[in-house]
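Folding follows sequence. Below is one example:
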Amino acid sequence: MLRWILGGREAQGTVEKNSLLFIGEEQPKNWFTELQVLKGHFDIVRFLVQIDDFRFASAGDDGLVLVWNVETGERLLELRAHSQQITAMTAYSHAIGEDIHTSLITASSDRTLSLWNPDTGNRVQSVSDLQSSVKCLLVLERLCVWVSGGNELCVWNRAFQLQCQSQHHDDTGISAMVELPKNCIAAAMDKEIGIFRLTMSTGSQLSVAEVRRLSNHQDSIHALINVKDGLFASGSHVGELILWDDVDWTVTAYEHILWEESQTNTQAEIRLAAPKPSEMSIQHLTSDGELLVAAVGSGLYVYSVITRSVIAYRKTAHDSNILHTMLLPDGGLMSCSEDGSVRMWEMQDLPLHAEPASAGFFGMWSFSRSSKQAIPPVKKVLEFPSLKTLELTGDLIGHSGAVQMFLSFGEKGLVTCSTDHLLIVWKNGERECHLRSLALFRKLEANGGL
């Protein structure tokens, strides 16, 4: 297997540009072989949001929002207003005449909300003295409103005017939201999912009401995403993955990812310790409509939405919990972890002579209509003849702290953020070399040659 590693780590967690080590016969094509370290934050960077084809914003525990150019690495703007850490950030696009303008909405532990113009750096609107901190934001472009989730679900118009809000929820509040058809919203609230419906009255007044409470999870919900038209998914702290119908809110598939000890030769083998809760926790979900990737502890599981079955896995993909994942256009996937690495994976067929894993090391999947029902007999890994494995194809090492998330700009590069206060832009070295050569030739041509 060809594996390559970018750079080594310096004392401050920085990596010099073009610091490369290859292990193998040839360089992988179209991968990140050049990096640029961006400095500006002085605390953990947790959020990255794309503004347009060239710009993105970063935010974190220092309360700063910085706007960057992904191609040049230039820091364009520094947005200061929040006195405490940023808890949520999203882009809000709306039409101004024939042009589409993108604003930034930020929420903070200081119980304020801010609307920013990323072109000028001005704070256009703000709301302060909220009853609770906002944990998540959701833009409903079709209704020209946006929603904040904390101890209440609040609906705001473009001018930052509160249109309506739900009743007070428990202390855990709303941690994640997704948009559903028929003006509905699914909101994760500890172990349950609340379904809220927005209603427009004859006087163009909006109201919001909870119409259903889904209580199929046994533990806190850490991930909630739209999968495709007709489905959304949720993942819990104890490894429960549920696919829901987004119209009638019924369970369409239930998957419980567990580990169990082998029942054979128990006297001779070394018994594994019971897994820690974090080892089974679904921390992140991502989907392209056909595949669904769950980050479960330090492992990766690829689930087919079409066949309703697990098609690939890697029980130990990182040394620590995985925090963010992404499916790649070429069929691979990418993950980042508390261990400070970003890794790329490729789905490959298992060798015919090899077993995927023993029951004592890997475990099982089980299926039922609802987690409230008894778990049916186990379906072991070997019962899935088409099961694939995830093979490591690239390892990006540059951060000295946990990598919180990443943001892809396609051929322009990949941006990562970390607890080490740094941002790194990973780029295709061959493309960057070509662009520098073109720029040099154009400069020579403009100056009349050498």
The chain has two helices and 35 strands. The chain has one domain: 3-9+27-446. The first strand starts at residue 3 and ends at 6. Residues 1-30, 260-274, 353-383 have pLDDT under 50 and may be disordered.
